[in-house]
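Continuing the batch. This is chain 6 of the set; chains 1 through 5 are on the previous pages. Same settings as before, nothing changed between runs. Recording input and output for traceability.
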Amino acid sequence: MEVDVECIEIPQSDVKERRRFLVKLIEDTVRDLLQSVDKNETPKILFDDGRNSGWSSNSSSSMFSESEGSGTSSSGSREKTLKFTANKCRQRFALIMRVLEHVHGNLVNNLDNSESDFYSTRRSFFYTLKNEDIKRFVKREQQVEWAINQVTMMLECGPWEIGFYTTSKGLVAGDLSLHLNDGRCVNYEQRNCLLVPDVVANVTRIRTSADFVLVVEKDSVFQKLLHDELPASSNCILVTGKGYPDVPTRMLVNLLSEKVRLPVYALVDANPYGFEIMCVYRFGTLNNSGYRKHLLCSEMRWLGVHQEDLSLYNIPRVRLTKGDYKKIGELMDRSYVDSDFSKHLMEMKQGKAEIESVQQPKKRFLADFYIPEKIRLKKYC
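Output for chain 6:
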């Protein structure tokens, strides 16, 4: 039987020009700050934090409280101000300036597209700062994470564009080959899994014969479906972010949806946290607002587990905790939760269940019946 194989070239931007642009942006920002000092004015940094007014304030955690200069821009994002003269802003101001200094030097030293020393993890940068005078401002790694996120929003770029990457924890199995800009090729197989590349932005070519992508919430379910040979029997690409997904995993799912145009389905626990994980893939998060377009998979469909599945297969429900009810309330406030999603969330108050409970009727029930049948009948939303 002949199998159709898709080979998709991923357009690459001019890295040198992009880095030059970011260098100029940083230099313009610093010049403006110095001019403020020269004019005896208060140096301050203005930028949007990307928070659309429709999002709940609980959608994102922040290491620091808002400054007094916060306002709302015409786009619905909240404009933030960090003033060097404000006591509660000085440490944040200094930390952002140190990140800008590091990024500027990194970009200037790698304008020739050299990648050997360009990338580093946020954790390694945190330990670098712990050996500098600024260490008194850096008590926790999350503070460095916060500062890097602010810089990406200021520069309107992804962290990989300024030399920071997240070590991927996501896994992939299926007929898929990813060609990278350094000449390497990652070949995934239907019966074995490999990690998602750390910098998915470096993918230049994708080859696959798969019919769809299935994203599962948990590693345990991923391993079960891999053992039951779902990627081979359903000719799909199986992906897991092992819980809340990291940036590389979300970028890969975005590529497979946007560039290869494969249908993408999500299989998560029948509880509010599983629902939220599906929403992270589909709608994004506030923490990544500066580069959300590279991470979204707006065409993803929620395959299950739904409350109607629990009733159909007589799967026992577990009572919700106070934390579950609180999470449902937070999710109901999200702008992307439409009437259909609201209905599912309200039904979720009847009780919750994990994906594993759907495996009980027979050993290969998920791989042989549940998943292919739900896709065939279009039982997703």
